[in-house]
TrEMBL record:
<dbReference type="GO" id="GO:0009743">
    <property type="term" value="P:response to carbohydrate"/>
</dbReference>
<keyword id="KW-0325">Glycoprotein</keyword>
<feature type="disulfide bond">
    <location>
        <begin position="143"/>
        <end position="171"/>
    </location>
</feature>
<dbReference type="InterPro" id="IPR059116">
    <property type="entry name" value="P2X_receptor"/>
</dbReference>
<feature type="transmembrane region" description="Helical">
    <location>
        <begin position="44"/>
        <end position="62"/>
    </location>
</feature>
<dbReference type="Pfam" id="PF00864">
    <property type="entry name" value="P2X_receptor"/>
</dbReference>
<comment type="subunit">
    <text>Homotrimer and heterotrimer; functional P2XRs are organized as homomeric and heteromeric trimers. Homotrimer. Forms heterotrimer with P2RX1. Forms heterotrimer with P2RX6. Forms heterotrimer with P2RX3.</text>
</comment>
<feature type="binding site">
    <location>
        <position position="197"/>
    </location>
    <ligand>
        <name>ATP</name>
    </ligand>
</feature>
<dbReference type="GO" id="GO:0033198">
    <property type="term" value="P:response to ATP"/>
</dbReference>
<feature type="disulfide bond">
    <location>
        <begin position="271"/>
        <end position="280"/>
    </location>
</feature>
<feature type="binding site">
    <location>
        <begin position="82"/>
        <end position="84"/>
    </location>
    <ligand>
        <name>ATP</name>
    </ligand>
</feature>
<keyword id="KW-1015">Disulfide bond</keyword>
<dbReference type="GO" id="GO:0004931">
    <property type="term" value="F:extracellularly ATP-gated monoatomic cation channel activity"/>
</dbReference>
<keyword id="KW-1133">Transmembrane helix</keyword>
<feature type="binding site">
    <location>
        <begin position="301"/>
        <end position="303"/>
    </location>
    <ligand>
        <name>ATP</name>
    </ligand>
</feature>
<comment type="function">
    <text>Receptor for ATP that acts as a ligand-gated ion channel.</text>
</comment>
<dbReference type="GO" id="GO:0048266">
    <property type="term" value="P:behavioral response to pain"/>
</dbReference>
Length: 406
């Protein structure tokens, strides 16, 4: 009698069955099964979702965002500025060469509206400013000779001397004397400043589309000599009054002239190059850029000095200038029809419409009373059997009684 063959372990058989099932699933083919569910509420949900998706792509994606276009942002830009006008302070008449800094006419420049002048400063010794920390003293013992305060006005000599006015005393320093706080004189230049005119010449170029344009009308009749900017009638006359710029930024000119500030002139070039070049026009906006509600960082001022010689000694006039700084900022975006983004967005739209089917399937399988019937009809597995042997799955395909109950 032959010996019985040993049976393989149960675990090994289960592993082989699992591997066979995974390998079979790898070669299986899945195809959608169309089932008509006669449920009015579900049909309304399905069509509503499809309609919303369609409206989103037609109105927002294609009409508002113009996603059928190839686009380019950040045009190459050139800005040239020129200021004209004269003004009067308490002591003299000021012209553009004196109150515009720097004078080159770039995209960032300052118009001086108030100054604090410290004249006739020479190298010598004098009392330190009261604003400097630890500058006050009662005797020479309170002052350390050779000490240099980085926020002060010079090198301390070790002496305690009377201040410029009052009964106070401060440590003596060696430097440019008198110091700014001791002898400065304030002058206001903003009386006529609102009528200063500013010419802003701007030209842009979109290299991807080889498109260029400027903000000045091409005329030979001296148009720029007698025009000022108007959003409707004189859009291509970029000559702005300083008062108009400050007003459009929502600021009070007198207050701004005393404390100084930064105003941004924003030029936006949004161009649809599928249309004619005449529809590509600049749009101007104005706003204050420095945070005026934060006292520590609001306002704008800077210092400079004018040097000369008197009786062989070097003398200077120190000027602390408050002014309105103008920053010209250019933005823009150009778009033109392109086949590639059009195809991509159309494919995305058609694919997204399938979200309605996914949502309705989820509702059917989760919330409907006959969800098990739908699940049975939705997911069928067919085995490739010989033609003479009909499978049980073939019989289930013709059973529609349960589905009719949905």
């Amino acid at each position: 009698m032959a010996a019985a063959e040993p049976k393989p372990p149960a675990g090994a058989a289960a592993a082989r069955d699992l591997a066979r099932g995974c390998w079979s699933a790898f070669w299986d083919y899945e195809t959608p099964k169309v089932i008509v569910v006669k449920n009015r509420r579900l049909g309304i949900v399905y069509r509503t979702v499809q309609l919303l998706i369609l409206l989103y792509f037609v109105w927002y994606v294609f009409i508002v965002q113009k996603s059928y276009q190839d686009s380019e942002t950040g045009p190459e830009s050139s800005v040239i500025t020129k200021v004209k006008g004269i003004t009067l302070s308490e002591l003299k008449v000021w012209d553009v060469e004196e109150y515009v800094k720097p004078p080159e006419g770039g995209s960032v420049f300052s118009i001086i509206t108030r100054i604090e002048v410290t004249p006739f400063q020479t190298l010598g010794t004098c009392a330190e400013s009261m604003r400097v920390k630890n500058a006050s003293c009662h005797s020479d013992e309170d002052c350390v000779a050779g000490q240099l305060d980085m926020l002060g006005n010079g090198l301390r000599t070790g002496r305690c001397v009377p201040y410029y006015h009052g009964l106070s005393k401060t440590c003596e320093v060696s430097g440019w004397c008198p110091v700014e706080d001791g002898a400065s004189v304030s002058q206001f230049l903003g009386k006529m400043a609102p009528n200063f005119t500013i010419l802003i010449k701007n030209s842009i170029h979109y290299p991807k589309f080889q498109f260029s344009k400027g903000n000045i009308k091409n005329r030979k009749d001296g148009y720029l000599r007698h025009c000022t900017f108007h959003e409707v009638s004189d859009l291509y006359c970029p000559i702005f009054k300083l008062g108009y710029i400050v007003e459009q930024a929502g600021e009070n000119f007198t207050e701004l002239a005393h404390t100084g500030g930064v105003i941004g002139v924003i030029i936006n070039w949004d161009c649809d190059l599928d249309l004619s070049a005449s529809t590509c026009n600049p749009k101007y906006s104005f706003r204050r850029l420095d945070p005026k509600h934060i006292p520590a960082s609001s306002g704008y001022n800077f210092r400079f000095a004018k040097y000369y010689r008197i009786n062989g000694s070097t003398t200077r006039t120190l000027i602390k200038a408050y002014g309105i700084r103008i920053d010209v900022i250019v933005h823009g975006q150009a778009g033109k029809f392109s086949l590639i983004p059009t195809i991509i967005n159309l494919a995305t739209a058609l694919t997204s419409i399938g979200v309605g089917s996914f949502l309705c399937d989820w509702i059917l399988l989760t919330f409907m009373n006959k969800n098990k019937v739908y699940s049975h009809k939705k997911f069928d597995k067919m085995v490739d059997a010989p033609a003479s042997e009909p499978s049980q799955q073939d019989c289930t395909l013709t059973d529609a009684r349960g589905l009719a109950q949905l």
